Amino acid sequence: xxxxxxxxxxxxxxxxxxxxxxxxxxxxxxxxxxxxxxxxxxxxxxxxxxxxxxxxxxxxxxxxxxxxxxxxxxxxxxxxxxxxxxxxxxxxxxxxxxxxxxxxxxxxxxxxxxxxxxxxxxxxxxxxxxxxxxxxxxxxxxxxxxxxx
Length: 149
Prior knowledge:
- By secondary structure, the chain is mainly α.
- 74% of the residues lie in helices and 3% in strands.
């Protein structure tokens, strides 16, 4: 039988899984086109476009720092996206520490989002973090509540 903590724990797991899906989508959704864009730039020196959007346009943040777009810079973004997607996938299992990894890689990916002018990533990441916090709070609450039989 489950008591109130069973429902709380269930909602916490659902929130963590939803956060994992968002992290996985963020990492794969930006990382795969960036990897293709890096290969295209290495071959042609140009910018690859995905659905009429440049995969790695230089934004004001990188320009203000004097950072020029290069294949190693794009591959750094691909690596950060791979870590983010992996953390999301591990949150779906669920694996201990995956949520911490997802939060830890966010500052790195956020720098690239600002540098490459990727406006859709921050709202999705904010939603993932919110779901993750809800999941952590629900888990903590479930630990404190006695299970009724």
